[in-house]
Amino acid sequence: MTKFNINRFGKVLLWSAQMTKKEMLTNMGSMFFAMFIPFLIHLLSSYRTDEIHAAGSLLSAMQFCLVIYFIITVIGGCWLFSNMKTKEQRLTFKMLPATDLEKFVARALYVTVVWWVMAFIAFCAADVFRMLVSLVAGIPVVKCVIPEFASILLGTSEYYTFNVDGMTMAEACSILALAYAWLFWLYSFYILGGALFRRRQFVFTTLAHFIIGMAFLPLFVGFVDDIDQHIARSMFVPLAWTGAAVFALWGVADWVLSYKIFRRMQVINNKWVNL
Q1: DSSP designation for 85
Q2: Distance (Å) of CA 121 to CA 15, 146, 227
Q3: Which ranges of the chain does DSSP label H, i.e. alpha helix?
Q4: Residue range 192-218: mean pLDDT, rounded
Q5: Using 50, 70 and 90 to split pLDDT, how confident is the model at 89?
């Protein structure tokens, strides 16, 4: 089997869904708990207060949930091969009648699309539960914040927009490209960590990210301090696009390396890394 077969891939997806039902429910429960913490703080601070204070508290809680959602979705790559923790699980998954590419894509879809949807469902459940508690406790503001949360994620919110005042269109586009490329690389980096490390994937990947950041930060600060302000403005757009290209290529390289690590993965591997 050397080609990607859509029917065979569909069977791998179904098998993966059956095998990860318990894990999905457990993770969604953890996500729900994490999402409800800001709402719990909102409920405690809004009890027996006026409507203005309660509305501001609810807005702050939703914004904090956005941060939690971002963290959850980024670190989701660490669960790339969570279905291969034991020797029996690795043997079962590696021996599936499908190509390595089909199995890798199935797991990649789980930690991207499925993981993001799980986090959104957890937020919706936390918000609904918050509304029920608000009704019982007599909190002044009970409104649902799911539509606003979704509009922010989709970039259609009227209240949360990218401010381009004082920027040219070229500068604004380059900043957005750099930001999206960096986010793509960051997620891909956790995908690589999930493929490379057998244990403590989140801890080791985050530590590696911190070390890389600390290594490049002095170089960036020194470059910014030495450059003239007018020259910096003229060089800003090409440098931003260059940075976006570097992060994008680095992100693609992380995905390719993750796939290559999976192909080399054996039933019996090193205690700490999948090599």
Answers
A1: S
A2: 22, 10, 47
A3: 6-19, 21-46, 51-75, 87-94, 100-109, 115-137, 146-154, 169-196, 201-226, 229-264
A4: 87
A5: confident
Which is nearest to 119 in space by CA: 23, 24, 21, 255? Answer: 24
SS3 category, 273: strand
Question: How is residue 208 written in tokens?
Answer: 């590696």
Q: Which is nearest to 178 in space by CA: 251, 71, 70, 258?
A: 251
Cα–Cα distance measured from residue 19 to residue 152, given in angstroms and rounded to the nearest whole number: 33
Strand partners, 273: 197
Residue type, 161: T
* DSSP designation for 112: I
- Measuring CA to CA, how many Å separate 207 from each of 81, 112, 197, 212, 273? 19, 22, 12, 9, 15
Question: Cβ distance 126 to 99 under 8 Å?
Answer: no
Using one digit for the tens of pLDDT, what is the confidence trace for 113-172? 999 999 999 999 999 999 999 999 888 888 899 999 998 888 777 666 655 566 777 777
In sequence order, which residues have a C-beta less than 8 Å from that of residue 97 and are 6 or more positions away? 1, 8
pTM of the model: 0.84
Cα 5–Cα 9–Cα 15 angle in degrees, nearest 5:
155
- Take residue 262 and report the two structure tokens written for it: 């999976």
